[in-house]
């Protein structure tokens, strides 16, 4: 502590702030924070933003963030555009507010930042998506929460939320991009809890998913029904994909899926998993959602596409 005080007395503000960031902990946080705030108007805005954000990893203080934001906005000693730093601090402040259950103006803030993401540094976009995830999770909008969580994980590679990502995407009634999430959670041991379920669902293995019904009910409660139904939806997609004629009998679907087929197809149409119509006892389809296909089928599609590109290239070479 004596070293921090000596830096402060010498007005070596950059070194002082750097030492504050490195030294603050749960035991000395009040004393160090007071020292930091006493001369905050003397620090460069970039240093204020960086130091305050590091302090916030130890000190949960909305007041500190507000003081830092106001100081940067009112700064006349240093010239420059510090809007990114202000945005970063405001997002952190709103994240603390959400954690405290204060949601006023948060959705408006998220909407305003949505269009400016491309102009922000990656670490600011990361915390923006984490704020979106926590806000929509707390307010009960699972689909929006998942969208932000997926974006956050893609940018941050934060393994501490992989289990949450796996669980939410499994129980969501409208999320079907399993391959994307499976590639994330299967790359680390933190995803082991749900990896086997993901494999079953994304491959549409209705037999195996029903064998795990008791486990699903114990683990996911009422949401287990969504997981079982989604597995059946994937099997429907797989069955349709194998039919080159783009038609399949309802009798075959009923037999393979083991569910009341008419209402099941209506739900599949409503989710946009398949586009088509029923005529008599035949389902005719024009489009299926490719991202729901199992890895094996997507590899086949990739190979066909590669062969097609090669043939097109050879044809162009011959006529030139």
UniProtKB/TrEMBL annotation:
Q: Does the keyword Secreted apply?
A: no
Q: Which InterPro entries would you find in this protein's record?
A: PSMD13
User: Which biological process annotations from GO are given for this protein?
Assistant: ubiquitin-dependent protein catabolic process
Keywords associated with the record: Proteasome
What are the GO cellular component annotations? Answer: cytosol; nucleus; proteasome regulatory particle, lid subcomplex
Q: Which residue spans traverse the membrane? A: none
Q: Name one GO molecular function term.
A: structural molecule activity
Answer yes or no on keyword Magnesium: no
What is the protein's name according to its record? 26S proteasome non-ATPase regulatory subunit 13 like protein A
């Amino acid at each position: 502590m004596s070293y921090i005080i000596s830096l402060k007395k010498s007005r070596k503000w950059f070194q002082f702030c750097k030492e504050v960031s490195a030294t603050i902990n749960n035991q000395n946080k009040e004393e160090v924070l007071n020292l930091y705030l006493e001369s905050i108007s003397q620090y460069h805005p970039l240093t204020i933003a960086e130091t305050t954000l590091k302090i916030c990893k130890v000190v949960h203080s909305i007041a500190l963030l507000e003081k830092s934001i106001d100081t940067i906005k009112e700064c006349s000693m240093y010239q420059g555009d510090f809007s990114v730093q202000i945005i970063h601090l405001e997002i952190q402040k709103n994240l603390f507010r959400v954690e405290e259950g204060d949601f006023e103006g948060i959705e408006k803030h998220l909407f305003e930042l949505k269009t400016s993401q491309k102009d922000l540094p990656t670490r600011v976009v990361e915390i923006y998506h984490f704020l979106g995830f926590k806000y929509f999770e707390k307010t009960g909008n699972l689909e929006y929460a998942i969208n932000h969580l997926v974006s956050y994980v893609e940018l941050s590679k934060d393994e501490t939320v992989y289990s949450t990502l796996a669980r939410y995407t499994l129980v969501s009634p409208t999320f079907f991009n399993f391959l994307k999430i499976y590639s994330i959670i299967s790359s680390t041991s933190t995803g082991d809890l749900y990896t086997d379920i993901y494999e079953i669902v994304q491959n549409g293995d209705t037999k195996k998913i029903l064998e795990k019904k008791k486990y699903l009910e114990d683990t996911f409660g009422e949401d287990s029904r969504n997981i079982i139904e989604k597995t059946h939806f994937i099997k429907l997609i797989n069955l349709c994909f194998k039919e080159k004629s783009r038609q399949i009998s309802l009798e075959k679907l009923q037999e393979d899926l083991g569910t009341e087929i008419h209402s099941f197809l209506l739900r599949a149409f409503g989710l946009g998993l398949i586009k088509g119509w029923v005529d008599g006892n035949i389902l005719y389809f024009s489009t299926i959602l490719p991202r729901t296909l199992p890895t094996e089928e997507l590899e086949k599609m990739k190979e066909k596409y590669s062969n097609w590109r090669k043939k097109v290239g050879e044809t162009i070479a011959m006529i030139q």
